[in-house]
Amino acid sequence: VAAVLAGLSLLSLFTCGYLAWGSRRGGAGQAPGNLLGEEPAAGAPRSQPHIIFILADDQGFRDVGYHGSEIRTPTLDKLAAEGVKLENYYVQPMCTPSRSQLITGKYQIHTGLQHSIIRPTQPNCLPLDNVTLPQKLKEVGYSTHMVGKWHLGFYRRECMPTQRGFDSFFGSLLGSGDYYTHFKCDSPGICGYDLYENDNAAWDHDNGIYSTQMYTQKVQQILASHNPRKPIFLYIAYQAVHSPLQAPGRYFEHYRSINNINRRRYAAMLACLDEAINNVTLALRKYGYYENSIIIYSSDNGGQPMAGGSNWPLRGSKGTYWEGGIRAVGFVHSPLLKNKGSVCKELVHITDWFPTLITLAEGQIDEDIQLDGYDVWETISEGRRSPRVDILHNIDPIYTKAKNGSWAAGYGIWNTAIQSAIRVNHWKLLTGNPGYSDWVPPQAFSNAGPNRWHNERVSWTAGKTVWLFNITADPYERVDLSARYPEVVKQLLRRLSQFNKTAVPVRYPPKDPRSNPKLNGGVWGPWFKEDEKKKKPDKNKGANKQKSKNKKKAN
Protein backbone atom coordinates (compact mmCIF):
# COMPACT_ATOMS: atom_id res chain seq x y z
CA VAL A 1 0.00 0.00 0.00
CA ALA A 2 2.78 2.40 0.93
CA ALA A 3 4.46 1.91 -2.43
CA VAL A 4 1.22 2.71 -4.22
CA LEU A 5 0.74 5.81 -2.07
CA ALA A 6 4.23 7.02 -2.85
CA GLY A 7 3.93 6.39 -6.53
CA LEU A 8 0.75 8.27 -7.42
CA SER A 9 1.26 11.21 -9.74
CA LEU A 10 0.35 14.85 -9.19
CA LEU A 11 -1.94 15.21 -12.20
CA SER A 12 -4.62 17.79 -11.49
CA LEU A 13 -8.20 16.66 -11.76
CA PHE A 14 -10.96 18.89 -13.01
CA THR A 15 -14.60 17.94 -12.76
CA CYS A 16 -17.36 20.05 -14.22
CA GLY A 17 -20.92 20.65 -13.21
CA TYR A 18 -23.11 23.69 -13.81
CA LEU A 19 -25.96 25.06 -11.77
CA ALA A 20 -27.77 28.23 -12.73
CA TRP A 21 -28.00 30.96 -10.13
CA GLY A 22 -31.35 30.83 -8.42
CA SER A 23 -32.26 33.99 -6.57
CA ARG A 24 -33.78 33.56 -3.15
CA ARG A 25 -34.79 35.90 -0.40
CA GLY A 26 -32.90 36.00 2.88
CA GLY A 27 -33.16 37.68 6.23
CA ALA A 28 -29.59 38.02 7.51
CA GLY A 29 -28.70 41.65 6.98
CA GLN A 30 -31.64 42.23 4.62
CA ALA A 31 -31.75 45.88 3.60
CA PRO A 32 -35.04 47.64 2.87
CA GLY A 33 -36.21 47.28 -0.72
CA ASN A 34 -36.21 44.48 -3.24
CA LEU A 35 -32.72 43.07 -3.77
CA LEU A 36 -34.02 40.85 -6.56
CA GLY A 37 -34.51 43.79 -8.96
CA GLU A 38 -32.84 44.24 -12.31
CA GLU A 39 -29.16 45.05 -12.31
CA PRO A 40 -28.42 48.54 -13.60
CA ALA A 41 -26.73 48.92 -16.96
CA ALA A 42 -23.04 48.18 -16.74
CA GLY A 43 -22.06 51.43 -18.49
CA ALA A 44 -18.61 51.93 -19.94
CA PRO A 45 -16.23 48.94 -19.98
CA ARG A 46 -14.24 48.58 -16.77
CA SER A 47 -11.00 46.66 -16.71
CA GLN A 48 -10.30 46.68 -12.98
CA PRO A 49 -12.63 44.19 -11.28
CA HIS A 50 -14.45 44.73 -8.01
CA ILE A 51 -12.86 42.41 -5.44
CA ILE A 52 -14.97 40.97 -2.63
CA PHE A 53 -13.04 38.76 -0.22
CA ILE A 54 -15.22 36.93 2.32
CA LEU A 55 -13.36 35.27 5.19
CA ALA A 56 -15.32 32.96 7.49
CA ASP A 57 -13.97 32.20 10.96
CA ASP A 58 -13.37 28.60 12.14
CA GLN A 59 -15.53 26.94 9.48
CA GLY A 60 -14.69 23.24 9.36
CA PHE A 61 -13.70 21.50 6.13
CA ARG A 62 -16.84 19.35 6.18
CA ASP A 63 -19.12 22.24 7.14
CA VAL A 64 -20.43 23.17 3.72
CA GLY A 65 -23.16 21.40 1.79
CA TYR A 66 -20.99 20.33 -1.13
CA HIS A 67 -18.60 18.56 1.28
CA GLY A 68 -21.44 16.40 2.59
CA SER A 69 -22.48 18.37 5.67
CA GLU A 70 -25.89 17.94 7.27
CA ILE A 71 -25.87 21.73 7.65
CA ARG A 72 -27.62 23.42 4.73
CA THR A 73 -25.57 26.03 2.88
CA PRO A 74 -27.52 26.65 -0.36
CA THR A 75 -25.83 29.99 -1.09
CA LEU A 76 -22.30 28.69 -0.71
CA ASP A 77 -23.19 25.57 -2.70
CA LYS A 78 -24.56 27.59 -5.65
CA LEU A 79 -21.79 30.17 -5.68
CA ALA A 80 -19.16 27.42 -5.59
CA ALA A 81 -20.92 25.28 -8.22
CA GLU A 82 -21.03 28.21 -10.66
CA GLY A 83 -17.46 29.20 -9.88
CA VAL A 84 -14.32 27.22 -9.16
CA LYS A 85 -14.05 25.06 -6.05
CA LEU A 86 -10.57 25.05 -4.53
CA GLU A 87 -10.03 21.50 -3.32
CA ASN A 88 -6.30 21.68 -2.62
CA TYR A 89 -6.45 24.99 -0.79
CA TYR A 90 -4.50 25.78 2.38
CA VAL A 91 -4.60 28.41 5.09
CA GLN A 92 -2.96 28.63 8.52
CA PRO A 93 -4.28 26.82 11.63
CA MET A 94 -5.29 29.98 13.53
CA CYS A 95 -6.78 33.44 13.10
CA THR A 96 -3.87 35.92 13.14
CA PRO A 97 -1.50 33.82 10.99
CA SER A 98 -4.04 33.38 8.18
CA ARG A 99 -5.03 37.05 8.20
CA SER A 100 -1.42 38.26 8.22
CA GLN A 101 -0.53 36.02 5.29
CA LEU A 102 -3.59 37.10 3.31
CA ILE A 103 -2.84 40.79 3.73
CA THR A 104 0.95 40.62 3.13
CA GLY A 105 1.50 37.62 0.85
CA LYS A 106 4.23 36.47 3.26
CA TYR A 107 4.76 33.43 5.46
CA GLN A 108 4.68 33.94 9.22
CA ILE A 109 8.44 33.40 9.48
CA HIS A 110 8.88 36.54 7.37
CA THR A 111 6.70 38.80 9.52
CA GLY A 112 7.67 37.57 13.00
CA LEU A 113 4.15 36.30 13.72
CA GLN A 114 5.06 32.60 13.62
CA HIS A 115 3.89 31.87 17.17
CA SER A 116 0.24 31.63 18.21
CA ILE A 117 -2.00 34.69 17.75
CA ILE A 118 -1.83 38.35 18.76
CA ARG A 119 -3.37 38.55 22.24
CA PRO A 120 -5.48 41.59 23.26
CA THR A 121 -3.02 42.64 25.97
CA GLN A 122 0.15 42.30 23.89
CA PRO A 123 1.95 45.35 22.50
CA ASN A 124 2.11 43.69 19.11
CA CYS A 125 0.70 44.05 15.61
CA LEU A 126 1.43 43.24 11.99
CA PRO A 127 4.86 44.90 11.57
CA LEU A 128 4.48 48.37 10.11
CA ASP A 129 7.18 47.85 7.49
CA ASN A 130 4.99 45.31 5.66
CA VAL A 131 3.08 46.66 2.67
CA THR A 132 -0.54 45.46 2.76
CA LEU A 133 -2.97 44.33 0.08
CA PRO A 134 -5.34 47.32 0.50
CA GLN A 135 -2.41 49.73 0.32
CA LYS A 136 -1.35 48.27 -3.03
CA LEU A 137 -4.92 48.39 -4.33
CA LYS A 138 -5.32 52.02 -3.27
CA GLU A 139 -2.26 52.87 -5.36
CA VAL A 140 -4.20 51.90 -8.50
CA GLY A 141 -7.42 53.70 -7.66
CA TYR A 142 -9.38 51.23 -5.55
CA SER A 143 -11.69 52.29 -2.77
CA THR A 144 -10.88 49.93 0.11
CA HIS A 145 -13.28 48.94 2.89
CA MET A 146 -13.10 46.41 5.68
CA VAL A 147 -16.05 45.02 7.63
CA GLY A 148 -15.59 42.47 10.41
CA LYS A 149 -12.77 40.97 12.44
CA TRP A 150 -9.27 42.52 12.26
CA HIS A 151 -7.13 40.51 14.73
CA LEU A 152 -3.82 41.91 13.48
CA GLY A 153 -3.03 44.05 16.51
CA PHE A 154 -4.00 47.53 17.70
CA TYR A 155 -1.71 48.54 20.55
CA ARG A 156 -0.80 51.77 18.74
CA ARG A 157 -2.86 53.81 16.27
CA GLU A 158 -0.52 53.03 13.40
CA CYS A 159 -1.63 49.39 13.66
CA MET A 160 -5.32 50.11 13.06
CA PRO A 161 -7.02 49.01 9.80
CA THR A 162 -7.47 52.61 8.63
CA GLN A 163 -3.70 53.11 8.95
CA ARG A 164 -2.94 49.90 7.03
CA GLY A 165 -4.68 50.77 3.79
CA PHE A 166 -8.44 50.70 4.41
CA ASP A 167 -10.50 53.81 3.65
CA SER A 168 -13.05 52.63 6.19
CA PHE A 169 -13.32 50.01 8.90
CA PHE A 170 -16.34 48.72 10.79
CA GLY A 171 -15.87 45.74 13.05
CA SER A 172 -13.89 44.24 15.92
CA LEU A 173 -10.20 44.44 16.73
CA LEU A 174 -9.93 41.26 18.81
CA GLY A 175 -10.17 37.59 17.94
CA SER A 176 -13.58 36.95 19.48
CA GLY A 177 -16.36 38.46 21.55
CA ASP A 178 -20.07 38.45 22.23
CA TYR A 179 -22.09 38.53 18.99
CA TYR A 180 -24.71 40.88 20.46
CA THR A 181 -23.01 43.03 23.12
CA HIS A 182 -19.56 43.11 21.46
CA PHE A 183 -17.86 42.78 24.84
CA LYS A 184 -14.81 40.63 25.38
CA CYS A 185 -13.04 39.51 28.56
CA ASP A 186 -9.45 38.44 28.06
CA SER A 187 -9.17 37.36 31.69
CA PRO A 188 -11.14 38.01 34.91
CA GLY A 189 -11.51 41.76 35.35
CA ILE A 190 -9.86 42.57 32.00
CA CYS A 191 -12.96 43.26 29.92
CA GLY A 192 -13.97 45.84 27.37
CA TYR A 193 -16.10 46.89 24.42
CA ASP A 194 -14.91 45.87 20.97
CA LEU A 195 -16.86 47.40 18.11
CA TYR A 196 -15.23 50.10 16.02
CA GLU A 197 -16.12 52.46 13.23
CA ASN A 198 -12.85 53.63 11.72
CA ASP A 199 -10.69 54.67 14.69
CA ASN A 200 -13.38 55.14 17.34
CA ALA A 201 -15.61 52.91 19.44
CA ALA A 202 -18.96 52.51 17.64
CA TRP A 203 -21.23 53.04 20.64
CA ASP A 204 -23.98 54.37 18.33
CA HIS A 205 -24.19 50.96 16.66
CA ASP A 206 -24.58 49.09 19.93
CA ASN A 207 -28.19 48.10 19.31
CA GLY A 208 -27.98 44.42 20.22
CA ILE A 209 -27.87 43.35 16.57
CA TYR A 210 -26.30 39.97 15.85
CA SER A 211 -22.89 40.66 14.32
CA THR A 212 -23.38 38.57 11.15
CA GLN A 213 -26.50 40.57 10.30
CA MET A 214 -24.98 43.89 11.40
CA TYR A 215 -21.88 43.40 9.25
CA THR A 216 -24.03 42.47 6.24
CA GLN A 217 -26.11 45.62 6.63
CA LYS A 218 -22.89 47.65 6.69
CA VAL A 219 -21.70 45.96 3.49
CA GLN A 220 -25.01 46.81 1.81
CA GLN A 221 -24.66 50.44 2.86
CA ILE A 222 -21.13 50.62 1.42
CA LEU A 223 -22.24 49.12 -1.89
CA ALA A 224 -25.27 51.42 -2.09
CA SER A 225 -23.18 54.57 -1.59
CA HIS A 226 -20.21 53.70 -3.83
CA ASN A 227 -20.05 54.33 -7.58
CA PRO A 228 -19.87 50.87 -9.27
CA ARG A 229 -17.92 52.40 -12.17
CA LYS A 230 -15.00 52.83 -9.77
CA PRO A 231 -13.19 49.72 -8.47
CA ILE A 232 -13.81 48.64 -4.90
CA PHE A 233 -12.02 46.19 -2.62
CA LEU A 234 -14.35 44.90 0.06
CA TYR A 235 -12.84 42.67 2.76
CA ILE A 236 -15.64 41.02 4.76
CA ALA A 237 -14.22 39.10 7.71
CA TYR A 238 -17.23 37.62 9.47
CA GLN A 239 -17.01 36.71 13.14
CA ALA A 240 -19.03 33.55 12.49
CA VAL A 241 -18.69 30.69 13.18
CA HIS A 242 -16.10 31.30 15.91
CA SER A 243 -17.11 30.77 19.54
CA PRO A 244 -19.00 31.92 21.58
CA LEU A 245 -21.72 29.83 19.94
CA GLN A 246 -24.62 32.26 19.52
CA ALA A 247 -27.31 32.63 16.86
CA PRO A 248 -30.78 34.18 16.48
CA GLY A 249 -33.52 31.73 17.44
CA ARG A 250 -35.12 31.28 14.03
CA TYR A 251 -31.97 29.71 12.57
CA PHE A 252 -32.34 26.72 14.90
CA GLU A 253 -35.54 25.69 13.11
CA HIS A 254 -34.00 23.04 10.83
CA TYR A 255 -31.56 21.70 13.41
CA ARG A 256 -33.70 20.69 16.39
CA SER A 257 -32.82 17.07 15.68
CA ILE A 258 -29.11 17.62 16.40
CA ASN A 259 -28.64 16.43 19.98
CA ASN A 260 -25.20 17.89 20.52
CA ILE A 261 -25.88 21.43 21.72
CA ASN A 262 -22.61 22.83 20.37
CA ARG A 263 -23.19 21.32 16.94
CA ARG A 264 -26.79 22.60 16.92
CA ARG A 265 -25.72 26.16 17.75
CA TYR A 266 -22.89 25.97 15.24
CA ALA A 267 -25.35 24.83 12.54
CA ALA A 268 -27.64 27.77 13.28
CA MET A 269 -24.70 30.19 13.08
CA LEU A 270 -23.60 28.75 9.74
CA ALA A 271 -27.16 28.91 8.37
CA CYS A 272 -27.27 32.60 9.27
CA LEU A 273 -23.87 33.16 7.65
CA ASP A 274 -25.00 31.44 4.45
CA GLU A 275 -28.07 33.66 4.29
CA ALA A 276 -25.95 36.76 4.90
CA ILE A 277 -23.68 35.89 1.98
CA ASN A 278 -26.76 35.49 -0.19
CA ASN A 279 -27.76 39.04 0.72
CA VAL A 280 -24.28 40.36 -0.06
CA THR A 281 -24.46 38.72 -3.47
CA LEU A 282 -27.89 40.14 -4.13
CA ALA A 283 -26.64 43.61 -3.18
CA LEU A 284 -23.76 43.24 -5.65
CA ARG A 285 -26.36 42.56 -8.34
CA LYS A 286 -28.76 45.29 -7.29
CA TYR A 287 -26.18 48.05 -7.20
CA GLY A 288 -24.38 47.14 -10.43
CA TYR A 289 -21.17 45.46 -9.27
CA TYR A 290 -21.77 41.80 -9.99
CA GLU A 291 -20.85 41.51 -13.69
CA ASN A 292 -17.39 42.98 -13.05
CA SER A 293 -16.76 41.33 -9.69
CA ILE A 294 -14.62 38.57 -8.25
CA ILE A 295 -15.97 36.95 -5.09
CA ILE A 296 -13.50 34.89 -3.08
CA TYR A 297 -14.69 32.78 -0.16
CA SER A 298 -12.36 31.20 2.39
CA SER A 299 -12.28 29.92 5.93
CA ASP A 300 -9.37 31.17 8.04
CA ASN A 301 -8.57 27.75 9.51
CA GLY A 302 -10.09 24.37 10.27
CA GLY A 303 -13.03 23.77 12.57
CA GLN A 304 -12.90 23.14 16.32
CA PRO A 305 -14.86 19.94 17.13
CA MET A 306 -15.31 20.91 20.81
CA ALA A 307 -17.04 24.07 19.52
CA GLY A 308 -19.25 22.29 17.01
CA GLY A 309 -17.02 22.29 13.91
CA SER A 310 -16.29 19.24 11.76
CA ASN A 311 -13.29 18.53 9.54
CA TRP A 312 -14.19 14.93 8.75
CA PRO A 313 -12.69 12.97 7.06
CA LEU A 314 -9.54 15.04 7.62
CA ARG A 315 -7.36 14.54 10.65
CA GLY A 316 -6.94 17.03 13.49
CA SER A 317 -8.55 20.41 14.13
CA LYS A 318 -8.00 24.14 14.39
CA GLY A 319 -4.65 24.97 15.95
CA THR A 320 -2.88 21.93 14.48
CA TYR A 321 -0.82 21.29 11.37
CA TRP A 322 -2.77 18.17 10.47
CA GLU A 323 -4.92 18.61 7.36
CA GLY A 324 -8.00 19.32 9.49
CA GLY A 325 -6.34 22.47 10.81
CA ILE A 326 -5.02 23.92 7.56
CA ARG A 327 -7.00 22.57 4.60
CA ALA A 328 -9.87 24.97 4.08
CA VAL A 329 -13.19 25.49 2.39
CA GLY A 330 -12.55 27.88 -0.48
CA PHE A 331 -13.92 28.90 -3.87
CA VAL A 332 -13.94 31.72 -6.40
CA HIS A 333 -17.17 32.95 -7.98
CA SER A 334 -17.06 35.44 -10.85
CA PRO A 335 -18.55 36.15 -14.28
CA LEU A 336 -14.92 36.79 -15.29
CA LEU A 337 -13.85 33.15 -14.78
CA LYS A 338 -13.15 31.20 -17.97
CA ASN A 339 -13.71 27.69 -16.56
CA LYS A 340 -16.90 28.16 -14.57
CA GLY A 341 -18.32 25.13 -12.83
CA SER A 342 -14.98 23.42 -12.31
CA VAL A 343 -12.93 21.98 -9.48
CA CYS A 344 -9.31 23.07 -9.01
CA LYS A 345 -7.09 20.49 -7.36
CA GLU A 346 -3.91 22.45 -7.93
CA LEU A 347 -1.99 23.67 -4.89
CA VAL A 348 -3.19 27.10 -3.68
CA HIS A 349 -2.28 28.90 -0.45
CA ILE A 350 -3.71 31.95 1.29
CA THR A 351 -0.52 33.94 0.56
CA ASP A 352 -1.34 33.62 -3.16
CA TRP A 353 -4.24 36.08 -2.98
CA PHE A 354 -1.86 39.05 -2.48
CA PRO A 355 -0.05 38.82 -5.87
CA THR A 356 -3.09 37.37 -7.64
CA LEU A 357 -5.41 40.24 -6.71
CA ILE A 358 -2.83 42.98 -7.24
CA THR A 359 -2.15 41.63 -10.74
CA LEU A 360 -5.89 41.46 -11.52
CA ALA A 361 -6.21 45.04 -10.31
CA GLU A 362 -3.44 46.10 -12.72
CA GLY A 363 -1.19 47.00 -9.82
CA GLN A 364 2.55 46.70 -9.49
CA ILE A 365 4.43 44.45 -7.08
CA ASP A 366 7.64 46.10 -5.94
CA GLU A 367 10.78 44.14 -6.77
CA ASP A 368 12.12 44.56 -3.23
CA ILE A 369 9.05 42.88 -1.68
CA GLN A 370 10.03 39.26 -1.05
CA LEU A 371 6.68 37.52 -1.46
CA ASP A 372 5.87 33.92 -0.62
CA GLY A 373 2.66 33.97 -2.66
CA TYR A 374 2.15 33.29 -6.38
CA ASP A 375 -0.21 34.66 -8.99
CA VAL A 376 -2.66 31.75 -9.39
CA TRP A 377 -5.41 33.40 -11.45
CA GLU A 378 -4.72 31.36 -14.59
CA THR A 379 -4.63 28.23 -12.45
CA ILE A 380 -8.08 29.02 -11.06
CA SER A 381 -9.72 30.60 -14.09
CA GLU A 382 -8.26 28.54 -16.94
CA GLY A 383 -7.26 25.27 -15.31
CA ARG A 384 -3.52 25.68 -15.80
CA ARG A 385 -0.86 24.13 -13.57
CA SER A 386 -0.14 25.99 -10.35
CA PRO A 387 3.19 27.81 -10.13
CA ARG A 388 3.28 26.67 -6.50
CA VAL A 389 5.04 23.40 -5.71
CA ASP A 390 5.54 23.79 -1.96
CA ILE A 391 4.05 25.42 1.13
CA LEU A 392 5.84 26.20 4.36
CA HIS A 393 2.99 25.58 6.78
CA ASN A 394 5.13 27.07 9.55
CA ILE A 395 8.19 26.89 11.77
CA ASP A 396 7.44 27.86 15.36
CA PRO A 397 10.65 27.92 17.42
CA ILE A 398 9.00 28.80 20.73
CA TYR A 399 6.07 26.37 20.70
CA THR A 400 6.29 23.65 23.38
CA LYS A 401 9.15 21.40 22.33
CA ALA A 402 8.55 17.71 21.70
CA LYS A 403 10.23 15.87 24.60
CA ASN A 404 11.85 13.22 22.43
CA GLY A 405 12.80 15.47 19.55
CA SER A 406 16.47 15.81 18.68
CA TRP A 407 19.00 16.65 15.99
CA ALA A 408 19.74 12.94 15.74
CA ALA A 409 16.12 12.18 14.90
CA GLY A 410 16.41 14.83 12.19
CA TYR A 411 19.54 13.23 10.70
CA GLY A 412 21.63 16.16 11.94
CA ILE A 413 19.73 18.43 9.54
CA TRP A 414 16.91 19.60 11.79
CA ASN A 415 15.97 19.52 15.47
CA THR A 416 12.74 17.52 15.47
CA ALA A 417 11.75 18.95 18.86
CA ILE A 418 10.69 22.10 16.98
CA GLN A 419 7.12 22.32 15.71
CA SER A 420 7.16 22.63 11.94
CA ALA A 421 5.32 21.45 8.85
CA ILE A 422 6.07 21.65 5.15
CA ARG A 423 4.49 20.47 1.92
CA VAL A 424 6.60 19.80 -1.20
CA ASN A 425 4.66 18.46 -4.20
CA HIS A 426 2.64 15.54 -2.85
CA TRP A 427 4.83 15.04 0.26
CA LYS A 428 4.06 16.53 3.65
CA LEU A 429 6.44 16.45 6.60
CA LEU A 430 5.66 17.33 10.23
CA THR A 431 8.08 17.59 13.15
CA GLY A 432 7.79 18.30 16.85
CA ASN A 433 4.34 18.44 18.38
CA PRO A 434 1.78 18.87 15.56
CA GLY A 435 -1.19 19.11 17.96
CA TYR A 436 -4.45 17.23 18.59
CA SER A 437 -4.44 14.40 16.06
CA ASP A 438 -7.71 12.47 16.28
CA TRP A 439 -10.13 11.90 13.43
CA VAL A 440 -13.55 13.10 14.58
CA PRO A 441 -16.37 11.45 12.59
CA PRO A 442 -19.95 12.77 12.43
CA GLN A 443 -21.03 10.21 15.06
CA ALA A 444 -19.00 12.15 17.63
CA PHE A 445 -21.75 14.79 17.57
CA SER A 446 -24.57 12.30 18.19
CA ASN A 447 -24.81 12.85 21.95
CA ALA A 448 -26.00 15.85 23.91
CA GLY A 449 -22.56 16.82 25.18
CA PRO A 450 -19.00 16.68 23.85
CA ASN A 451 -18.11 13.06 23.21
CA ARG A 452 -14.79 11.53 22.20
CA TRP A 453 -16.04 7.95 22.35
CA HIS A 454 -16.40 7.80 18.58
CA ASN A 455 -13.07 9.49 17.83
CA GLU A 456 -10.39 7.44 16.13
CA ARG A 457 -7.47 7.59 18.51
CA VAL A 458 -3.85 7.66 17.44
CA SER A 459 -1.59 4.84 18.55
CA TRP A 460 1.85 6.07 17.48
CA THR A 461 4.83 4.64 19.28
CA ALA A 462 5.99 6.85 22.14
CA GLY A 463 8.58 9.44 21.29
CA LYS A 464 7.67 9.98 17.65
CA THR A 465 8.63 13.44 16.34
CA VAL A 466 8.72 13.03 12.53
CA TRP A 467 5.84 12.14 10.18
CA LEU A 468 5.76 11.86 6.39
CA PHE A 469 2.64 11.53 4.26
CA ASN A 470 1.78 11.40 0.59
CA ILE A 471 -1.10 13.88 0.80
CA THR A 472 -2.16 13.39 -2.82
CA ALA A 473 -2.80 9.69 -2.24
CA ASP A 474 -3.50 9.85 1.50
CA PRO A 475 -5.23 13.17 2.27
CA TYR A 476 -6.47 11.76 5.59
CA GLU A 477 -2.93 11.17 6.91
CA ARG A 478 -3.45 7.55 7.87
CA VAL A 479 -0.23 6.00 6.53
CA ASP A 480 3.02 7.44 7.92
CA LEU A 481 5.83 6.83 5.43
CA SER A 482 8.75 8.39 7.33
CA ALA A 483 10.43 5.07 8.15
CA ARG A 484 10.00 3.75 4.59
CA TYR A 485 11.37 6.84 2.80
CA PRO A 486 14.19 8.35 4.91
CA GLU A 487 15.71 10.06 1.85
CA VAL A 488 12.48 11.95 1.23
CA VAL A 489 12.45 12.93 4.91
CA LYS A 490 15.99 14.27 4.59
CA GLN A 491 15.11 16.30 1.50
CA LEU A 492 12.17 17.95 3.26
CA LEU A 493 14.22 18.59 6.39
CA ARG A 494 16.80 20.37 4.23
CA ARG A 495 14.05 22.49 2.71
CA LEU A 496 12.86 23.38 6.22
CA SER A 497 16.40 24.37 7.14
CA GLN A 498 16.64 26.60 4.05
CA PHE A 499 13.40 28.35 4.95
CA ASN A 500 14.55 28.78 8.53
CA LYS A 501 17.64 30.71 7.41
CA THR A 502 15.31 33.42 6.06
CA ALA A 503 13.19 33.68 9.24
CA VAL A 504 12.98 36.90 11.23
CA PRO A 505 12.85 36.86 15.06
CA VAL A 506 9.55 35.92 16.67
CA ARG A 507 7.40 38.83 17.87
CA TYR A 508 5.54 37.65 20.98
CA PRO A 509 5.93 40.25 23.75
CA PRO A 510 4.59 39.86 27.30
CA LYS A 511 1.28 41.48 28.20
CA ASP A 512 1.23 45.19 28.93
CA PRO A 513 -0.89 46.29 31.93
CA ARG A 514 -1.66 49.58 30.12
CA SER A 515 -3.84 47.56 27.71
CA ASN A 516 -6.60 47.17 30.33
CA PRO A 517 -9.81 48.67 28.86
CA LYS A 518 -10.54 50.25 32.27
CA LEU A 519 -7.71 52.66 31.49
CA ASN A 520 -9.18 53.41 28.07
CA GLY A 521 -12.82 54.32 28.76
CA GLY A 522 -13.95 50.70 28.92
CA VAL A 523 -12.89 50.06 25.32
CA TRP A 524 -10.30 47.76 23.78
CA GLY A 525 -8.12 50.06 21.73
CA PRO A 526 -4.68 51.61 21.18
CA TRP A 527 -2.92 52.31 24.46
CA PHE A 528 0.70 52.86 23.46
CA LYS A 529 1.51 56.56 23.41
CA GLU A 530 4.47 57.57 21.25
CA ASP A 531 4.86 60.80 23.25
CA GLU A 532 5.46 58.88 26.47
CA LYS A 533 8.16 56.84 24.80
CA LYS A 534 9.91 59.98 23.57
CA LYS A 535 9.83 61.77 26.92
CA LYS A 536 11.52 58.95 28.81
CA PRO A 537 14.67 58.78 26.67
CA ASP A 538 15.07 62.59 26.94
CA LYS A 539 14.90 62.36 30.72
CA ASN A 540 17.35 59.48 30.85
CA LYS A 541 19.60 61.24 28.37
CA GLY A 542 19.90 64.20 30.72
CA ALA A 543 20.56 61.96 33.67
CA ASN A 544 23.17 60.00 31.75
CA LYS A 545 24.86 63.25 30.70
CA GLN A 546 25.08 64.40 34.34
CA LYS A 547 26.46 61.00 35.35
CA SER A 548 29.07 61.29 32.62
CA LYS A 549 30.18 64.74 33.93
CA ASN A 550 30.43 63.44 37.50
CA LYS A 551 32.46 60.46 36.26
CA LYS A 552 34.92 62.76 34.44
CA LYS A 553 35.37 64.86 37.60
CA ALA A 554 36.02 61.74 39.64
CA ASN A 555 38.61 60.55 37.13
TrEMBL record:
Residues of the signal peptide: 1-22
PROSITE patterns: SULFATASE_1 (PS00523), SULFATASE_2 (PS00149)
Pfam families registered for this protein in UniProt: Sulfatase
Disordered, as annotated region: 505-555
InterPro entries documented for this protein: Alkaline_phosphatase_core_sf, ARSB, Sulfatase_CS, Sulfatase_N
Keyword Transport: no
A GO MF term: metal ion binding
Cofactor(s) the protein requires to work: Ca(2+)
Extent of Basic residues compositional bias: 542-555
Keyword RNA-binding: no
UniProt keyword list: Calcium, Glycoprotein, Hydrolase, Metal-binding, Signal
Listed Basic and acidic residues bias regions: 528-541
Family: Belongs to the sulfatase family.
Protein name: ARSJ Arylsulfatase
Gene: Arsj
